[in-house]
Amino acid sequence: MTRWVALIAGLLAAGPAGAQCLGFQCPPGVLGAGASGSGAPLDGFTQPSGAYSFRKLRSAYTGSAFRIKRASDLAELDIGFVGYVPGLGAPWDEAAATAHCAATTCSITIAYDQSGNGRDLPQSTTAPVLVLGGAPNSLAHARMTSAAFGFVSAGSFTPATGVVSMSVVARRAVGTGACVLFRENGALNRMQATAAAATWQVVGGTVGSIVAAAPDAAWHVATVVIDTTGSVLNIDGTETAGSVTGNTTPGLITVQGGATTTCDQAEWVFWDNYTLTPAERTALSQNQRDYWMPAPLDTFASPSGAYSFRKLKSAYSGPAIRIRRASDNLETDINFLGYVPGLGSPWDEAAAAAHCAATTCFLRTWYDQSGAGKDLVQTVAANQPSLVFNCKGSLPCWRISNVGTVTLVTTSTTPATGVVSFSAVASRDSGAGNCFWLRQNGNLNKLQTGTANFWNLIGGTSGTVAAAAADGAWHAAQGVLNAASSSLTIDGTATTGTATGIVTAGVTGILGSTTSVCSGGEAILWDAYPLTTTEIAALTANQRSFWGTP
């Protein structure tokens, strides 16, 4: 049993108390985030004015997470946190909550303040509903199904200066009412989902607002700064700047639902009289995305093809790969394991190892997680890539060794516009021939290796962007074909250039060469969509963290 299989087996057997992460797979800001090294995500931040979550946010906090009440007999119970787990932090004790709520429903009567300032938030007219085993990724959260549901502070809060920073993890699940994501002082300094579909907003109690897109039904992490001309609204790592002036009038701290609307919320933090720096906003956003939505593509534009040995989208419910063993040519699908906070949903290596025991296996199908149905299939046994279990550390990959005809392809694809984005995690292990990490339409728009120690992004119409990528090492690459705005980013370093895609039809696939050994673990394609600089940085960071690339 490999180290990866043993780890997953231990995680699933032990539950939260036994969970951990693999060194390079520990989410940024979860393991060793603060000066104490405890891993609580806010340990390295200025002390907040209020902090509420289904996970421990500060190591110094010793109280409970929430107080819950069951419907059957109205019995209430404080739910604390389980002990600190490397790579997972200290989640709330969901086992205790589940036992208390067995055969009935529960509501949340108090959200306890982890900041150390004692600003607990009791229920308002109607307590939010406790959702166990829900989204995102089977994590608990609070649900508010009308404006009457929510949390309201017991007393008024008076802002010191009108400068305030806020952070939430939430979604508007159903409806178009205004979800009050967080209000510092009544209806004044606040962040909310507006009455307009797919729109969130930050509003200053004195003057100004910032509006940004946030698709409904999807979970988002958002950070706000109200600081006059230095104000920002950061949603899923993308910042919109503006000018918003806060108000110092006293008011209640509130988190509430909206009329005829379902608002789901999981984490709230605010800092009074403090402006989170750009570095702090980036770190907090990345930490929240890694913990609450670690399927890396959950907050991205929908790809047109997505392939990996880990789950890339939480909504995907199919298998990871289909493999064939050499001894008797028997094929089987290999699924993903259940979600583990801080680790994600890796493939079921134990099942693959059992199928391939005492023989070798080959990759017959790499299933498309995008929802577009573009599975990469190779039915000819001689042309199937090898399945390697401990390819990148303890992580798996496909490998093409010195055979130019090895390929995985789908039916013909006709690009919509010639604007294309590619992503790959891969290595040219040896040789000087091309490794085609992903070709959108035959030998046209593509991401591949080039000359020794270089990768190329090639437009089918014209142009190539080349970037250094050492042979014999794994890399995380993001390529954008967008005419003069094209770029190839290798391990976080961007090279810009001009390359224009072509709309000629052709097959999508990967391909090796006769003189090289090529290995890959992840490939993603976006048709008619250019990844933004922020998206490139976020995806690169996620891949480097999970796969351990440079």
What is the percentage of strand-forming residues? Answer: 35-45%
* CATH architecture classification name of the largest domain: Sandwich
CATH class of the largest domain: Mainly Beta
What is the overall pLDDT average?
A: 89
Number of strands: 36
Terminal CA distance reads 27 Å
Stretches where pLDDT is under 50 for at least 5 consecutive residues are 1-38
The profile of the biggest β sheet is:
8 strands, antiparallel
CATH fold-level name of the largest domain: Jelly Rolls
Count of distinct structural domains: 2
**Net shape:** globular
Enumerate how many helices there are, as a single number.
5
Helical residues, percent: 10-25%
Q: What value does the Rg take, in angstroms?
A: 24 Å
Which structural class should the secondary elements be placed in? mainly beta
Please describe what this structure looks like.
- It is a single chain.
- This protein is mostly beta strands.
- The chain has two domains: about 5-290, Sandwich (Jelly Rolls); about 305-545, Jelly Rolls.
- The protein contains five helices and 36 strands.
- Strands 1, 6, 7, 9, 14, 15, 16 and 18 form an eight-stranded antiparallel β-sheet that branches. Strands 19, 24, 25, 27, 32, 33, 34 and 36 form an eight-stranded antiparallel β-sheet that branches. Strands 8-17-10-11-12-13 form a six-stranded antiparallel β-sheet, with no helix packed on it.
- It starts with a helix and ends with a helix.
- Mean pLDDT is about 90; it is low at about 1-40.
